[in-house]
Design brief:
Blueprint (H helix, E strand, L loop, with lengths): L16 H6 L2 H24 L9 H29 L7 H21 L4 H28 L6 H22 L6 H32 L11 H18 L4 H18 L8 H10 L1 H17 L9 H25 L9 H22 L5 H22 L8
Helix pairs in contact: 2-3, 2-4, 2-14, 3-5, 3-6, 3-7, 3-12, 4-5, 5-6, 6-7, 7-8, 7-10, 8-9, 9-11, 10-12, 11-12, 12-13, 13-14
């Protein structure tokens, strides 16, 4: 007869890799963010090389896919992990976020297919994605409403950004039939995506610095986000009214630069996992500085157009560096590993900076091999996320 000690815990139930992937929100959203990030850029590169041809406009395809399918899923995964902590609330159960995963990614598959076929099918795919986006917003909103914490300022800003993102979704959908693309880009890129990443950055990076570096004191401006938000709203309004943006770009450049100087981040004392986030921050003044230079030169009578160089300084330099930095930290930390950036991770960060510079160069000097530069940047994107997946994404399938 075998006696089993009643105090011995039963063995944990066996799970499949797919069950492990869906077990936590950051796992499944990071996975699909990487997957579609690679797929969308591969399709874009093949289009530029003339191997395939998209039916839908290339700017709509690129902007919408990355704002509402790729980056949204990355930062959804991060926020579904941190938002409950901001509000002292339990994490959402799998039954809440799984429908969001299905809707956004079903819509993403249809979006890719329909981009070769029909505008109406593209609209249908956008509607599906918008439903998923709405359900994601409601998870955050209900958490915010039920929380008893007194300071909800940062979560309020995040919800406001999501609201502008929703309006941007509608305008992107309408842009297939109406001239709403420019305003959709302003709302979706700046008031939604940029502002959410900024809110996360200004909350988490000084906090991480104070926790990791002895004697570092957080010194943030009280109305920093208020000022940036007003400037971004005015930027969208000026685009709608076709008014010159120089004043606003100077303001955004100055406020962002001044705030980063004010923080006095501990660059030389911080561990690598932290200073890669510091590095990402400085692409903000670079991006708006490029906008400012373009506006000044045009005002002086020079016919200068930097294409999408300033925007990609933000999208690749700021968003993507921040994404890989935060993503690496979350994946390692939530798998019981020590969050750190070793040589492998730092090489990936370096490649992202090189990719950013190459894409900026393509916009500033298109006569020096524009097509080759953007295709090379696209292949670098695929390389970076393939290597990142090899090291970190496989962890998402572990128990």
């Amino acid at each position: 007869m075998v006696f089993v000690n009643s105090l011995t815990p039963p063995p944990p139930p066996k799970t499949t890799p797919l069950q492990n992937l869906f077990a936590q929100p950051h796992r499944v959203f990071f996975f699909f963010g990487v997957l579609f990030g690679v797929v969308f850029i591969a399709v874009l590169a093949l289009h530029y090389l003339g191997i395939i041809s998209l039916h839908v406009g290339i700017h709509l395809y690129h902007a919408y896919a990355y704002m509402y399918i790729v980056f949204t899923q990355f930062f959804a995964g991060f926020l579904l992990t941190t938002f409950p902590r901001y509000l002292s609330m339990p994490s959402p159960v799998k039954e809440r976020y799984t429908p969001v995963v299905y809707l956004i990614n079903l819509g993403a598959i249809l979006f890719i297919i329909s981009s070769f076929l029909s505008d109406m099918l593209v609209v249908f795919s956008m509607v599906i994605i918008t439903f998923g986006y709405g359900k994601l917003f409601m998870i955050f909103y209900e958490m915010h409403q039920k929380s008893k914490v007194t300071n909800k300022q940062d979560t309020t800003w995040i919800l406001l950004a999501f609201a502008f993102g929703f309006i941007g979704q509608i305008l992107f959908t309408c842009s297939l039939f109406l001239p709403t693309y420019a305003l959709a880009l302003e709302l979706g890129f700046y008031l939604y995506l940029f502002f959410i990443v900024l809110v996360i950055s200004q909350k988490m990076i000084p906090f991480f610095s104070a926790n990791n570096v002895q004697n570092y004191k957080i010194n943030k401006s009280k109305y920093f986000l208020h000022v940036i938000f007003v400037l971004l709203v005015l930027k969208a309004l000026f685009v709608f009214l076709n008014i010159n943006l120089l004043f606003l770009h100077v303001g955004l450049f100055g406020v962002l630069l001044g705030e980063l100087i004010r923080w006095k981040l501990p660059y030389t004392k911080a561990p690598a996992i932290l200073w890669v986030l510091f590095l990402a921050l400085w692409w903000m003044p670079v991006g708006f500085g490029l906008f400012m230079i373009e506006d000044i030169l045009n005002l002086l009578g020079y016919d200068v157009y930097l294409e999408k160089a300033p925007l990609h300084a933000l999208a690749i330099g700021y968003f993507t560096t921040m994404l890989v930095g935060f993503g690496t930290r979350v994946i390692l930390g939530h798998s019981g590993r020590i969050p750190k950036a070793d040589r492998y991770a730092l090489i990936l960060i370096f490649l992202i900076q090189f990719m950013t510079v190459m894409r900026i160069f393509a916009g500033i000097f298109p006569q020096w091999g524009y097509l080759h530069a953007i295709v090379t940047a696209g292949f670098l994107w695929i390389l970076v996320f393939s290597l990142w997946s090899k090291r970190y994404l496989l962890i998402l399938f572990e128990k």
